[in-house]
Structure formats: structure tokens, C-alpha cells
């Protein structure tokens, strides 16, 4: 195989109670990329459509991950890479993670599946270092494994894939305002009372069991975040209104996607998820803020060949 075209999904990290530990991947939203082997052993990004991103391989997460993998595998080829971004960087939907994970997946395919998903996650995390300064795993792991994931531990890295009920559908609104990841991190307290921690880990347990048991009410009851959301929501215009509109229109729960500004809701079934999208639209349509709304199944597989 000399050339492949891949899709790599957008991802929702945190998922309310799972702050910095959980994520899931979107079926219908993500980057596309074409990887072509070259004789020259270098990494060239020859096309970027849909976003204003650096072409220099050491500044673009795609180039960073590619170079790490070519070095590690001592590959006897280089790469020409074309990137087609389908959603905006800085949305809180794992834009850099989609690029980084898609790159890891594509190169692994060109190397005939040399690496495990855990190893691919580690390569993709190098891209996150370039994008945001730290090797965060939740978005990249969700984009590689697909479905829901839990980052159980960083040292050693331990990623748990969690079965996802096929009826679970995500609705996401992306208000096009800028929130710096650094600003979003700063508002989250460094210390929390044990009482708060107990509620948070009890909800993570509830969410994971709800996903396994396909218990939609339990999933809904567990989508509570007492750590990041109370502090971060003030950075997102109409957050409370969107959450309230989503839940009163049938969503199981809603919260901030990653570090925002996107807001996600989870519903049982497409029909409810579409109704939730309409309700979100009603909140934002006169806001004067540009926004996009997506309704998507949660993908069972992560990055894939198209
Ligand atoms: P979000 O997760 O909020 O969508 P990211 O955390 O992914 O956004 O951050 C995007 C940052 O990563 C931007 O500063 C962008 O310039 C940088 N970046 C570098 N390469 C890429 C790439 N290929 N795709 C997306 N963002 C990239």
C-alpha cells in the first residue's frame, strides 16, 4: 500500500464527571487526510484545507506525530500528507487530537499494523504536546479506540475502552468564540473538598456502569460535574440556558466538551438528539454569536480508512 485516505473523529473529552479521564468519539464529524509514501525520507505537508495551520512539519501535530513514528519504526520511506479539516481548531472538540490520532492510525496502516492502540495513543500524545503543551490522552485515545474511553492511569498509560450503547446520540453546539485552553485550565480549582471528590468519582462509576448496562437513566443521573463545569461555564455564553434547553427537551444530560466552548448533550435516539439540536439553536439564534450544531452517533471504531 502506497497511499491511503483516512477519517479521524472529533472527540468530546471529560464528559462531565470524567474530567481529564474520559472521552468519546463522534461518528459523523472529523478530519480527513491522505498519506502517500515518498522515496525521500522526509515529512511534507503538501495541502491543508479548512483551517489556517502551519505547513512546517515540526509545528503541525501531523508532522510531529509522523516524524516520531517514522523514526521509531526506522521506516524506509517518507510521507506526503494532505489535511482536510472539517471542524475548527480551538472548538473543544479535539481538533489537534483528530489530526494526531489520524496520523498515528494512517502510518500504522502503512507499516502493516506494527503498533498497538496503546502505542498509537502514546505517539498521538506527542502531537498534543505540540498543540497545548501537555501530553493529554483523553481526546487522542477516544479518536484511536473509538466509542467511550477511560484514561485509568497515565503512569503507566492505561486506556480502558467502554462499550457504548448504540442508541446513544450526541448533540454538540460550537459557539465560535475563543477560549484559551490555559484560561480554561486556570479556573479549575487545584484543591477540592473530599465531599466533592466523593460525588465526582461516584458519578464516574455511575456513568461507566450505565454505559455497560445500557441504563440510560443512570447515564443521565451520572452526567454531573462538580469540579470543572461550575467554574468553566462562565466562560461560555448561554451555557446554563443551553443545558437547561437540552435537558427539558429530553437529553439525558449535558456539559462542556473538553475545555469548551463547545457544549455537548447525550440523548437516547436520533429523534431526541435532533430535538435537542433545535432547542440549542433556539437559545443561540439571536445571540449574535456564530455557531455550528452537530448531531452524531458515537462511533464504535476510531480513526478508519475511507
Ligand atoms: P480543540 O481541542 O479545542 O479543538 P486543540 O486543543 O486541538 O483544540 O488545539 C488546537 C491547537 O493546535 C491550535 O493552536 C492549532 O494551531 C494547533 N495545531 C497544530 N497542528 C494542528 C492540526 N493539524 N490540527 C489542529 N490543530 C493543530
From TrEMBL:
Binding site for ATP: 88-98
Cellular compartment(s): Cytoplasm
Gene Ontology annotations for the cellular component aspect, listed alphabetically: cytoplasm
Chain's role: Catalyzes the ATP-dependent phosphorylation of L-homoserine to L-homoserine phosphate.
BP GO terms, sorted: threonine biosynthetic process
Protein name according to UniProt: Homoserine kinase
Reaction(s) the record says it catalyses: L-homoserine + ATP = O-phospho-L-homoserine + ADP + H(+)
Underlying gene: thrB
Alphabetical keyword list: Amino-acid biosynthesis, ATP-binding, Cytoplasm, Kinase, Nucleotide-binding, Threonine biosynthesis, Transferase
This protein's pathway: Amino-acid biosynthesis; L-threonine biosynthesis; L-threonine from L-aspartate: step 4/5
Amino acid at each position: 500500500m502506497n497511499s491511503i485516505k483516512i477519517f479521524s473523529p472529533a472527540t468530546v473529552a471529560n464528559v462531565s464527571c470524567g474530567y481529564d479521564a474520559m472521552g468519546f468519539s463522534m461518528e459523523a464529524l472529523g478530519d480527513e487526510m491522505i498519506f502517500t509514501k515518498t522515496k525521500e525520507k522526509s515529512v511534507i505537508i503538501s495541502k491543508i484545507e479548512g483551517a489556517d495551520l502551519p505547513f512546517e512539519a515540526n509545528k503541525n501535530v501531523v508532522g510531529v506525530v509522523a516524524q516520531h513514528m517514522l523514526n521509531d519504526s526506522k521506516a524506509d520511506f517518507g510521507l506526503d500528507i494532505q489535511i482536510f479539516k472539517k471542524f475548527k481548531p480551538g472548538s473543544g472538540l479535539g481538533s489537534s487530537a483528530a489530526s494526531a490520532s489520524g496520523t498515528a492510525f494512517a502510518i500504522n496502516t502503512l507499516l502493516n499494523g506494527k503498533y498497538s492502540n496503546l502505542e498509537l495513543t502514546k505517539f498521538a500524545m506527542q502531537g498534543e504536546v505540540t498543540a497545548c503543551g501537555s501530553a493529554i490522552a483523553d481526546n487522542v485515545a477516544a479518536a484511536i479506540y473509538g466509542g467511550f474511553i477511560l484514561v485509568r492511569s497515565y503512569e503507566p498509560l492505561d486506556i480502558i475502552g467502554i462499550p457504548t450503547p448504540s442508541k446513544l446520540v450526541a448533540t454538540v453546539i460550537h459557539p465560535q468564540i475563543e477560549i484559551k485552553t490555559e484560561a480554561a485550565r486556570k479556573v479549575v480549582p487545584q484543591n477540592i473538598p473530599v465531599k466533592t471528590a466523593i460525588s465526582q468519582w461516584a458519578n464516574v462509576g455511575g456513568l461507566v456502569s450505565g454505559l455497560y448496562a445500557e441504563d440510560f437513566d443512570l447515564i443521565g443521573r451520572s452526567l454531573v460535574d462538580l469540579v470543572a463545569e461550575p467554574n468553566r461555564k462562565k466562560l461560555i455564553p448561554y451555557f446554563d440556558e443551553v443545558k437547561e434547553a437540552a435537558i427539558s427537551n429530553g437529553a439525558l444530560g449535558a456539559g462542556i466538551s473538553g475545555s469548551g466552548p463547545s457544549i455537548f448533550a447525550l440523548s437516547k435516539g436520533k429523534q431526541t438528539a435532533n430535538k435537542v439540536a433545535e432547542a440549542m439553536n433556539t437559545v443561540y439564534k439571536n445571540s449574535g454569536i456564530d455557531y455550528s450544531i452537530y448531531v452524531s452517533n458515537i462511533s464504535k471504531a476510531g480513526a478508519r480508512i475511507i
